[in-house]
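(Protein data)
===
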Amino acid sequence: MELVRDWRKKRHNGFGRRVWEVTPYAIMWILWVIRNAKIFKDKAFTIEGICVKMNALIWYWIDCWNGRNNYHFKDLVDH
């Protein structure tokens, strides 16, 4: 939980702020999912695949924010 507690509050506005707020939770969730898949299903993952999963999760989680309609998934991936 130190990651979340110590997560620096950036001065982003709008989209960047929403992404920044959920990123530590997405990191923890994806690491947990990958850990379980490795232990219980002996699955292998690449760093690139992990990053794609994390970006997709963040995109999904910020779907409830109305401002997301002004952005595309590519905006998240490129920044």
In short: The mean pLDDT is 88. DSSP finds four helices and no strands in the chain.
